[in-house]
Amino acid sequence: MDARLPEVSFPARLAEPGEGIGMDELALAARNHGMPLEALRYDVTPTGLHYLLTHYDIPVVDPDRWRLAVGGVVTRSLELDLAGLRSRPARTVRVTMECAGNGRARLLPRPVSQPWLVEAVGTAEWTGVPLREVLTEAGVGPAAVEVVFTGADHGVERGAEQDYQRSLPLAEAFGADVLLAYEMNGAPLPPQHGSPVRLVVPGWYGMAHVKWLREITVADQPFTGFQNAVAYRLRREPGEQGEPVTLIEPRALLVPPGFPDFMSRTRVVRQGAVGLTGRAWSGRAPVERVEISTDDGHTWTDADLGPHPHPWAWRPWTASWRATPGRHVLVARATDATGRTQPADQTWNAGGFANNAVQRVPVLCDG
Amino acid sequence: MDARLPEVSFPARLAEPGEGIGMDELALAARNHGMPLEALRYDVTPTGLHYLLTHYDIPVVDPDRWRLAVGGVVTRSLELDLAGLRSRPARTVRVTMECAGNGRARLLPRPVSQPWLVEAVGTAEWTGVPLREVLTEAGVGPAAVEVVFTGADHGVERGAEQDYQRSLPLAEAFGADVLLAYEMNGAPLPPQHGSPVRLVVPGWYGMAHVKWLREITVADQPFTGFQNAVAYRLRREPGEQGEPVTLIEPRALLVPPGFPDFMSRTRVVRQGAVGLTGRAWSGRAPVERVEISTDDGHTWTDADLGPHPHPWAWRPWTASWRATPGRHVLVARATDATGRTQPADQTWNAGGFANNAVQRVPVLCDG
Hints:
homodimer; 367 residues; mainly beta; Sulfite Oxidase, Chain A, domain 2; Immunoglobulin-like; six-stranded mixed beta sheet; five-stranded mixed beta sheet; 22 strands; molybdenum (chains A, B); OxRdtase_Mopterin-bd_sf (chains A, B)
């Protein structure tokens, strides 16, 4: 059946020096979207402003006919419907989610894929049933090593036709806050965020949070599916096995101050006191420090960190700046409790993943 | 104050031959977004999937402190708050909205601006107070010729600092379905769609539907503000006065059949019967004909039109196709009751507006 797929599905590649964004990358950018950075002002991102990445199409899943099959290395296979899932004790977790490819479009050379700049992030309150409750009910066998999640979204990637599938190591799958989520911000999941049920894995990049979930398989072997073994690996060269992409690296983002020019998106501020605000997060540990530079990283001062009652969500921060006429570049840098911080320059890999180089915000103070 | 704005705000320009999408265009594409075309399946576009274009930033407007000033050539100036607006008789209208720049990124040469392909569209149910009720209450003077609408969004465009402003001719402003809308799909407007109140002008391209509305001014002179007199004009050459961009041209779009390749977005279908569905609309008159081609426009057959109970919304259509192994290009073409139809090739102008060239959907049938 797949003999002709190579005619329309090509190997991964890097852009040539000076090559602009292509029509293929633009087609992805036009349908997926980042979070407009002024929306960093919200503790919880309003629905519709949260970043969105769909590998294939948003599938049609009828909530009334939806079933979740739980099988593999388990004592008893389960088939859950939505009413059954909703009848179990629920948990709500506030989670900052970020696409593993955030920042890709600024890499040199640029991996040709979804061309994110820096805005592929959002925070939502997810409500659902802890995955471990369902796994415990099914009875995970002693041979189990991973749990594989299958979505209803179907497509082709680099010649491989597939349903979207990702696995988690068993210990991760038993995390207290890993959810089979059926609500986002207190309402049923919108179609584009995985209706009726998706996986939420706090701290992990977005590829782990399988949308339109239809099957859970407990496996006694490491999963070798496309999204784990081929995509979402950190590789310098195409042939390498590479390390898997997992937890979110620390990042701070500024609410761009002042107002923008429509086309250049350069910010304009007035002379005098300018309040700077933003958010910072890490999937590995709480953010413990945010530093601000108003001179493109030559000098830094500590920002004031706000409270952090939701450990999986971003942390607010504030700083003040006295703008003087001229051009400035603002930079923010987060450091988490493990000591991980953000590099000034790119951390390049062939997939363009987990790049957390600092955001640079050009500003004109027009006096 | 504006002496330095030309450093960051540049004249409109056309891309050079072969020039890829630039980082400025990508920054717009990453924050704005189209409607993923599989969402054509919904009569009303789920919130978050409707296309979105924000010229500057999404402003912060507190609904409790929001006031709408109505003034100019009126008998009595008004100041309305949200409770006052909500206490008046409401009207709900289903409206298909499209960005005037839809299709711009495929133009040759390409006007450098928001780089839409073909997906800048969406349909919503807007609820609010008919504008004419408020205008009548204020008492429009005999000298009035236009109504000017001012939003709370502020930025710079081609060197001009401005609040977003647009005018409507007086007769249009008195249309029965022109709304001061405070609900979208039965819920308060999301921030990105103009919270708490926006203008909705059925049949017009998106630039007329002023978001974050804060002021209405009845004017005795034609409005010469930037968005009417400089932007949103149909010009072949920069110096021309140009015709204003107004009503939406007819367009049909296909739900892309089968499933996509992630990167090329080419569709893959199986051999045999393939149901084709889509939507068609025109801001000028009801769509009366949709034709389908499965051979890139060489031959055409009529699609079956569905019912059309909401005159300002898109009309569904269906067609059938027997796919044979190989490469195909599907095309749909709408014609409205005025006889306006879609050209096979671009209708070029320097702003890239009102281009309704037919959509071409490449498909691989893999046998």
